[in-house]
Amino acid sequence: MTLWLYAAEVWGRPDVEAVCLDLQDTHGQSPPLLLWRLWAITRRRGVDVAVVEHAVAAARRWDHAVTGPLRAARRGLKSALPAVAAAVRAELHGKVGLVELEAERALLDALERLTPDPGGSTEDGLSALVELAAIWGAPAPIATLRRLVEVSR
């Protein structure tokens, strides 16, 4: 299963979206990066610290240049802006949301390409997410990361 298909399937599970958005909005984490790490574990693709650091750097650059500005624009369109009708803002909100989703897919595709092939590696999901969050550089509560591991199964 590709990373994109895995992420889409897992995102649709109960509570995954809420936990990922909490990790993003409250704790500064990257949901695509977290889902990449979980996918690598479920696919037994051994990921060492060098690969994690490379993935974090790529995700950080992409978020700064692309998905972050798209997210800000999408969220900004929710606000009442007197010069622009609500219906126009709602239509733009939907279009920007689709572009943001395509940008996240592009990141997931890039992360999949840098992931080693399956090799029988077994890793603990919680430990891997704690390590990833630390390398990402934003503190994330272990309880919330644990919840993501649980709801993503």
Order of helices and strands: HHHHHHH
- Percent of residues in β-strands: under 5%
Domain count, please report it. Answer: 1
The outline comes out as elongated
Described by strand count, sense and barrel closure, the largest sheet is: none
**E-strand count:** 0
Query: On the 0-100 scale, what is the average pLDDT?
Result: 94
> How many DSSP helices?
7
The helix/strand class is mainly alpha
What value does the Rg take, in angstroms? Answer: 16 Å
Low-confidence stretches: none
The N- to C-terminal Cα distance equals 15 Å
Helix percentage range: over 70%
Descriptive overview:
This protein is mostly helical and 153 residues long. It has one domain. Helices cover 72% and strands 0% of the residues. Helix 2 packs antiparallel against helix 7, helix 3 packs antiparallel against helix 6 and helix 4 packs antiparallel against helix 5. The chain is elongated, with a radius of gyration of 16 Å.
Characteristics:
153 residues; mainly alpha; 72% helix
Topology:
Blueprint lengths: L2 H9 L4 H10 L5 H12 L6 H28 L9 H29 L10 H12 L5 H10 L2
Helix pairs in contact: 1-3, 2-7, 3-6, 4-5, 6-7
Short description:
With 153 residues, this protein is mainly alpha-helical. Helix content is 72%, strand content 0%.
